[in-house]
User: Fold these one by one.
Assistant:
Number 1:
Amino acid sequence: MHEPIVASEELTKRYGRHTVVDAVSLTVRRGEIYGFLGPNGAGKTTTLRMLVGLVRPTRGSARVLGGRPGDPAVLRRVGALIEGPGFYPYLSGRDNLRVLARYRRLADADVEQALDQVDLSARGGDRYKSYSLGMKQRLGVAAALLGEPDLLILDEPTNGLDPSGMADMRDLIRKLAAQGRTVLLSSHLLGEVQQLCDRVGVIAGGRLLTESTVAELRGASSLLVRAEPALLAEQVIAATLGAVEVRRTADGGLEVHAEPDRNPELVRALVGAGVEVHEIRSVERTLEEAFFEMTDHAPREELAS
Amino acid sequence: MNTIASLRAELLRLWKWPVTWVITGVWLTLNVFFGYLLDYLSYRDAVGAGDRRLAGALLAQLSLERVPSTMVTGLPMFGSALVLILAALVTGSGFGWNTWRTVFTQGPGRLQALGGTLLALALVVVAFTVLTLLTDMTASSIVMAAEGQALVWPGLGAVAEGLGGALLIGGTWAAGGALIGILARSPGLSVGLGLVWVLIVENLLRGVAGLLGPLETVTDLLPGTAAGSLAGALGAAGAAEAGGAPGVFTVLSGGQSIALLALYLVAFVVAASLVLTRRDA
């Protein structure tokens, strides 16, 4: 689980004087779903394009499955869907996959298996140009699954899908990860990353701001206490929980930096001391809040929860 | 091995691409129309007018023996343009549909992927050429039978020369089209640029070359001049002759034309490979 399968060192891409990706060093470990989170234009796609050898870095380096990005031996073990699907519109979905299977020297049976995995077998004979956006996206994932790759690199795989399509795609990604595949998933959807990913790299303005587990990123939980008198409540909390940080909120409540499992103990102590407890509940930061704390300059409208 | 895998993939998609069949059909139709139908109607007209000399020249042009030269007559002008369009669409559309990007993430190296595409195009040109030979032989046989003439088949050597010349002309323009498609990264722009070059720029340059001495040397070395000269060396009639076609020249010798076309073919392939392998996708 901890073996790095993708590792980049100071990966940088400049177009003229414009730096699109700025010294990104990320690590994706075997077997995890890694979320590459950032607003549109943050540099996610360019980073992924460098990791599959479509774009040469201006500076820095990367290792993918122990090899150089773009190396044919490496690419045969990688399935990628970058910047949306790219297929021949006049061919059927099945024939498009057959063309790609020939590039990979795979049999037609592999094509059927890939179509089956994304639930497109019934429509595999239809022309690609007649597909809905969701079907096109699923065919892109099917192409990425050809050859049963060890690593899946999926760039915004739920882009353009309706809510039901998004849910299906997330289920598929979970299923693929459960089969032991490593998934590197880029997204601007905070909820999606929070639901799916084991670890997250947050990128904004071309720079990797942080890389950690979703739980670490959201930070420790706290307790919100509304009680009267507040001063006495504050003293009881300090006596019960010891040296924990207690902060008064704007509406007169107390935010206590303690784990939620201290809740019953605290209620007993407060009530026993004659404090009137109106409310006590655990508060968790959402990934969205954590994200905006890090990227307070990021335009909110480009991120969706 | 990757190149063979790429070739098999490209052949599958070219076989199923309507554009391949439309362009082949258009070429065969134009070839029969300009190479046989118009000449046959002119022949009937000359017979009706009692012009036996013209009628004899036109009938000779339609004979089976002349098939190897007739099949290359239309190549320097519209045959080249059609091959160039097909090749430019093959490579250029890959950027429009983002299929190059998909292919590059599948495992073949870029050079192997391009090698597969160029080999598939070469096979299409071979099929194009063989179909032209068969169509022309059929058309000529029908004319000769209709006119009660004996079917005198061309020698194998002449057929081989005609096929070889057609393959070299078609192959060079296919490589040129593939290069333009890669440079322009767009099917529309590459087709437009290719046609402007083949049908307009080269002819304009030849038109003004008589006024500027140094320019004449340049026009003699253009790919269109080499293709037209090879067709001329193989016996194709120029525009001034009965049953002749524009784009056929006698500027260069057969050997010079072959050498120059081979040079262009290699240069186009090398340039396409360099651009595709070095540029970000």
Number 2:
Amino acid sequence: MLRRLTMMRGSFAKRCTIVIIASICIFRSSIAHAQTSKEVEYRFKAVYILNFLQFVEWPDSAFPNQDAPIVLAVLGEDPFGKVLDETVQSEKIGARSIVVKRFHSLGEFSPCQVLFVSSSEKESFHSVLRRIGDSSTLTVSDMDDFGGQGGGIGFFMDNNKLRFEINMQALKVADLKASSKLLRLARVINPI
Amino acid sequence: MNESRICFSEKEQPRLAARRTSLHRNILHRRFETLVFCMIFFIAFGAEMRSATMGADTLSTSELKKISLEDLMNIEVTSVSKSPEKLSETPSAIQVITADEIRRSGASSIPEALRLATNLDVAQKNSHDWAISARGFNTDLSNKLLVMIDGRTVYSPLYSGVFWDAQDYELQDIDRIEVISGPGGTLWGANAVNGVINIITKSAKETQGWFVSAGGGSELQDFADVRYGGILAPNVFFRAYGKYFNRGDEVAANGDDTSDSWKKGQGGFRIDAASSPNNNITLQGDYYSGTENQETGGNGKVSGGNVLSRWTHTISSESDIKVQLYYDHTYLLSPKPAAKPLPAGNLTDGLDTYDVDFQHRFPLGGINRIIWGFGYRRTHDVVGNSPTVVFTPSVLNQNLYNGFLQDELTLQEDLFFTLGSKIEHNDYTGYEYEPNARLQWNFLDQHTLWTAVSRAVRTPSRIDHDFSSPTGLPAPYSYLYDAGTNFISETVIAYEAGYRFQIGSEASVSLSAFYNDYKNVRSLTPTPTTPILPIPLIFNNNLEGFTKGFELNANVQALDWWLLRGGYDLLIERIHVKSGSSDFTNGLNETADPQQQFSIHSSMDLLHNIELDLIPRWVDELHVNNGPTPGIVASYFELNLQLGWRPGKRFEISLVGENLLHPRHPEYGYPGLGREEIVRSGYGQISYSL
């Protein structure tokens, strides 16, 4: 009985090895494709931003006139590429179309309704907030703890899923109203 | 009959044939391994070619824009593959036990976690054995449930049932348990007659860092769990875990300790490489070993291990290919008591399973969603017979081939019709067919009606076909039970309907009704020609009949801090002997089920990070029929609770009390000295994550 047991264990190890080697052959081919998952992540973030545009209300004073488009700007290194433009082209919020602008640095800044702050601007984050002041600009970013540090909406990952937090105080200062549909799905910080 | 537990005794066959088959077996083994190797290289090569020509189109921006924000938040961004199929859009009676429910319930084993599915009948027999079934037939040799862990089948071909003492995992790392009541033959194959249980573990990415847990108590005397998860390379995650526990005795009807304590250790690993949204590879394995004291004397052993690999190749949100292969080895040693004039002895069983499965999902013509696949399984079973329990032949290789095809047609915007079938070929009965048809109507935004007709099959297991129990007495009384070589598959035609609805985001209710028509259910035919005692009793297919009932399940977020889940089941069983045939117990041996049962899981988040969960359950009486006269297990009402303090996600202390309302109570078994009762017990646990 004991001999049979040891014989069994030997062949068990051998069979396991075969399965493992076989699997490594399959798995080897997938390592080459490490690039595209970031692109997918930003596709998601672009669609989330489109949703934010739909469920946040800007005061009339945020726009020069009734026909002015909503300006969605990216500050710093652009992680979206053409994905952001693709997502918002031909979309309308109410009667307003959406226009995408890019600011390579804070010096190029001009008034906008949504400002996506790239994580490349992490160090100059507070200068950005000062520059915006209390104008009706929704700041969005995926840098660490963006909402906690005073940003408007911050992206974070939870168990592989894309989530966001909303800083109510920041929205209040900017005179922005977020619909309950959006608040229900967000992690809310600084509630008022 | 005095015992449902079959007594086994020795009967030797000539050994020449065995030696020849042994050589034959080695050649077949090698051929099989070569075949598997070739298949793998072919697939790997194909994957390389395919990836090189693939575009980056998984979920395109326009597809993403069509999905609501709420649903987007449920998609795993880094392994983007499926469109989210909400629970409310499945045309079957499915319940999902979540990781959080398991954590809060105080469950410390898989059978205890399964109590949380209200569509299952879960009965604890003794310290290490459980009887679990859905929609009836929860007999000692209950065989109508298909159980899988991460796609690996865990039932034993010895009797088509599950040895629950051998199934375990790091509970903290279980993502969810899907429990389907009702046949799942088309997608899952034979043995999924009354239900399918799918235990799904978390990916390695979700279990990073350290998790350490330890504790002890009165029945679960001491235990410790450790898991570490880390990164092997960019986008390649792994975890490794080890666990150990020591459980004490339950008691006999008079309150005395029985000697059925046991202890077990298990360890394993999982590696997930999700380097692109198009390809996911998983490699995982476990090994366990335990010893169990037996109430009837002696020490039993269980041990085993498995290695599984799975490759998912995503083509689009509605289309993917999955290939899975695994090797599983189980070993058990079960001491069998003497049955005069035969001595005591050990029954051993060593089972090797090799399994390869392929599955492809794709849309067609805008209204079809097709899924098809095929698979092959080979089992190599070696039984060491004991004096009173004999399987002939003692070494058996079996092949199982299967193919399936299913199409979901979108008839109108909210009306879906599914039609499909599986074809299997097994060594005992040849070809078996398991077709099903389902209709689903999402008639309002949060309301779904569904109905289904399915045929499912329970193919013979070794006990139906190869088993005999010698008595040691002279002819014609040499055998108590004998397998029937004419044993055919049991079949069911199941008619089901269900209604599922949600009330805002606060409550959801699900109601399922069923009528199952069974034919050729296992029976024990007495041998009429033997004077005085009509033995041997031959396994035959002389029972038929129906079961019907319904299952109600509801989840209510009563208050912000109070979640209530609960369910009620009604089961009416009418199984009888076919006219003109006979059965030793007149149709009563295959069923031991409560007519009604209900349970509630109340989860409360109290002040100061304290969590309190209360789980009362009530189970109707069981009529247990494997004895000289019908026996009863009384109905019982019991309560489990967990009180936990969880100041942050990293640290938790909990106190668990189980079966608190009575000092002891039986849940299963024929009344008498052999039946064990489950005692009131408790344990404490500390867990820490880094």
Number 3:
Amino acid sequence: MTVQRFDVPYSEAAVEDLRQRLVRTRWPDQIPGSHWDYGVSLDYMKEICQYWKDEFDWKRQIEKMSAFHHYRYTSRGVGIHFIHERGEGPAPIPLILTHGWPGSFLEMLKVIPMLADPASYGANSADAFDVIVPSLPGYGFSDRPTESGVNTFRIADIWMELMKELGYERLAAQGGDWGADVTTLLGLRHPERVIGIHLNSIPPYKPYLEAGTALSEVEQAFLNEASRWYEKSGAYDHIQKTAPQTVAYGLTDSPAGLAAWILEKFRDWGDCDGDIERRFTKDELLTNITLYWITQTIHSSCRLYYEDNRAPLHFQKGDYVTVPCGIARFPKREGPLPPKRWVERGYNIQHWTEMSRGGHFPALEEPELLVEDIRLFFRALRS
Amino acid sequence: MLSWNLSLLLTWSPRLRIEPFKVAVAEQVLSDLKTRIRNTRWPDSAPGAPWSQGTDLEWLRNLMDYWAEEFDWRAQEQRLGELAQFRIEIDGVRIHFVHARARSGRGIPLILTHGWPSAFLEYLPLVPLLTDPVRHGIDGPAFDLVIPSLPGYGFSERPRLAGVNYRYVSALWHRLMTELEYELYGSGGGDFGAGVATLMALDRPDSIIGIHLTNLELAPYIGPGSRALSSAEKAYVGTSDLWLQSEGGYKAIQSTRPQTLGYSLNDSPAGLAAWIAEKWRSWSDCHGDLEGRIPRDFLLTLLTLYWVTGTIASSIRDYFDNRWHGITLGPEDFVRSPTAIANFTSQYAFEGDAPREWAERLYNIQRWTPMERGGHFAPTEEPVALARDIAAFFASLRW
């Protein structure tokens, strides 16, 4: 059996060790009144770490996760954790949802039941999906790769194997952040098996451009803005793709350090106007952070940047995602919004939704908007 | 001890408070450090060649084991106690410095400034060589050395405000030297220290005898109206850009989100050690074997200094402040003071070799010494070669 049931583990000792480390946190100073100017605010860090230490209930969070069906699939020695929920409806189609960094499968918990059982949420059961939510290799309860080369291409291949193992010859795919890269590769490399792909963020891909191709003004402006953004906000990417091991020591050893590293991205990339808890509850934020802590996967998760840098999503001559693509463009993301023309160079865009609100983590931020868009896009592709 | 008391008398001033300072770390801080090291939660090892994805796990585990079980901080403290050290309070901020006077005669006053991730410790090998050159076979004048800790490093406090940049520090240093009754003085340094020395000469040329730099921290103005880049300059800029892409992640994060990074580094000795050791290995002339170049006890003295003072977060703010609240050099900016560059370019991760004409855009170069060996931490790596160069340079100046 390469697919086995999996129970989310709970360790009292690990929770106690975490609590002891939080008690002993040695805080840095901060310039008074500098708030979030230099990075995560010290006041907020103290507040959330106190909650983490005194009130956060990891056991209860695990009980909530355990309401889903968890499994592990082993591919070439690497165990992949996933949730699998069968759809409630006349003809559910399989849909694989892929998360990114610094998220996890936990992002998807709100949308899984809505997608699997639409009738229970006031929608049409004809829109039901069999929902598969894996953890990326090196993330959450998936194994940490011990060899080089586990990049988005390899991950897409593993996803196809997994779906075949589950008996799904044809499938739908959806994702954001790394999940958008992986989902793109599913569509690009396996068009015969993929019904369509839906992305809630545009990957930092490069379309194939013939020599002498003139970019539109809008595209050029976007690329300029993207490199300005990278200069100001791309440092996490820079360090994670060049020296992930160096940054991992402190993040693996210090819960406060780990929390700061992850929280910053939820605040920057969520549609929250700087008020992180307007979008995410402390429990949502800390459940994700605790998952990284307990599984000791911040290092392996950051390594995906290193691997990606050696095998980036640069389309070669002839590369074009021919399967139907749906884009839900949420207004807040990690950088400037790519114009449609830029995306059309590499993707067969059949559906493009400009969302009025929401950010980089729409499954958490705007589950209804995201789910409705996914249903709408795939409705036209169901045969 | 006599000389220590004597220098105290000589430097005491009614204007600003200067107090003698002795390094003495509480036992509790040291035992807490050991406990944390023993309790380190280690990440897994990266696949591939050692060091290819950052500080190597096995190397670091060895170092940390030695740090907790064998390293003798008290012995280092005792050694540091032999130096006359003070703290001066300027605008409510206490600045730590070593003050080492010429063994005999009137020394040339020289303030030497370290950079990141370093400390005043880096310059201590120069103290005997430059205060008593004759005894060490160095041909040249003796110096009165002032070796401060940058604000927010080691035993110096950092002002609790934004904008502590090269210029800000250069003004502090001028006040420090004035308080020590040095009206005319030389200034030297590397990394941030080279930037500070440059600003001292730009802003207060009348006080400066000359400046001596071991690397080029500041890029000259190369905008409209400046001479076109030579081919050597183009090659240098190209190498520097590539270096930034592959090696500049630390700089990107420190200049944009230093506080976020600070939480882990201030809470984890292993995190701190990995972050700092990686730079000493990449930037020294060690060919990848850090401990073949930099003694383990020196490295751990430096790491312990950062740890016990809790200053990693404040030190990396330098990158943020110099980037967002920094200075911009324009076409008018030119250092007229005599300048010497001792070009220590043998970094393990080669950052480029600036040609002389590049430096001449900004400096009145009077001495240019390509060094065969030694990288970014020249005072510790090649103290004798550096001391000779400093002595020869200042011997050539009239003041």
Number 4:
Amino acid sequence: MAVNTNDKIITVKNLIKKFGDFTANDNLTFDVYRGEIFGFLGANGAGKTTAMKILCGLSKPTSGKISVAGFDVYKQTEKIKKNIGYMSQKFSLYEDMTVKENIRFYAGIYGLKRSYIKEKTAELLDRLRMNDYANTLIASIPLGWKQKLAFSIAIFHNPKIVFLDEPTGGVDPITRRQFWDMIYEAAHNGITVFVTTHYMDEAEYCDRVTIMVDGRIDALDTPDNLKKEYKAENMDQVFVKLARNIE
Amino acid sequence: MNTENKISNFTEEIVKVENLSKSYEKGKVKALKDISFSINKGELFGFIGPDGTGKTTLFRILTTLLLADTGTASLNNLDVVKDYKKLRKILGYMPGRFSLYQDLSIEENLNFFATVFGTTIEENYDLIKDIYIQIEPFKKRLAGKLSGGMKQKLALSCALIHKPTILILDEPTTGVDAVSRKEFWEMLKRLKEKGITILVSTPYMDEASMCDRIALMQSGKILSIDTPVNTIKSFEEELYSVSSRDIYRLKNDLKEYENTSSVFLFGQNLHYTSKQENTNIDELKDYLIGNNHEEIKIEKIEPNIEDCFMRLMEN
């Protein structure tokens, strides 16, 4: 994947978010390039979710200049929402609706045409080899399938950016790898991927990784450069060195 | 204590499970399929497997909260059905979902659980000291207002406050960051040294090495039970770590290679096994050079638990 560093899809300048006297995001500055897989790591409570909510247009920053897909996070949140996809481990699909109903529901929200939805649904079920399960309730399909389907639905409207919040938590090791194949494919097709994970081996699959500690960004680089900088063999060691430093 | 005694103590079976099955939705969903195993006194025993494998169902049966369809289970010679009242007194249980009272403070939660079990914080303070001391400065704070790591420490303190013989922890490290996970396992090791038998489930394969023995679980079945070292030994093929500059293209090319048996991404490397009994490295290298790969590295490595798990899943 050739990432063009002049083509910024997300720009964040001096982002600050406070809740009362607690500073959740303490002066964050970073860019995300079009088509890259951007890993957003950090300990629990480091401020990842807060920042992600702001980037998705769901929460307003206290101060800072932030644009996502060319839109301003203060004034153009509805436009941001149309241009991004989102999936998380905790909430992805409606359990009491079938596979097909979930696809139609989400595609409908994004205002896609009925004929287009129909055609793309058939294509999608084919690719996921889930034709036999089109009318099965989400509640009774295995977690791994659910996550793969949720990801496909999150990019169904061909967004510019997809935000993935711990998409592979609890998924078996084979499905976890198949999931990353899908992420690569999406990035290859020009969708920017913004992903959080607690699996440190997955941090190695990202083009660039940032590690948040205590509301700040303490490191941002390619996995290779981070390993060199912190004299670590793998990303796990980088993470531990950074996160332990705070005490 | 003489050594002989120690050994016989160690091999005393404290958890016995025979032919346990459980299904939901009138038999449509089979959560546990005829599971049998035993756990020795003082063991730190891990159940490792992805979500939806049956780990929580198993733990709920062992903690007397759910009835099995068939099969038997006993802990410390107490049957999970007949002796459930006695059994509950000697079990400490930390469910997967945070189950403490959000509108009570840290101290109130702990006091509550101590009182329910007819004891006091002071009486067993020794056991929880290492863990509780980290959250004690905030003891007036409501449980609902705690961070994930603090909630976890409080839940563990509450599960320990009646000095249980057996501690059962359902995915205590799920969704917890890499540093806090390491710290949690260190706490478990110290508890084990105090003689508590610990059953713990986790979806993280890398935590296997922290256990005395592990059961690898998938789709309601136990794929293998052994020590981490022996589980790794059971991986018979030669395993290689392969890398080149473009790892993603490398993976696709290796998948097309005629001698490939398996190829999986592991961070910045691929783990590769060959169909050949003795992997022909030169041939492999030539193939990769022929496909224009640069900076090729091929190195023989020891498998890890995740390698073993995927091998068992495929069989």
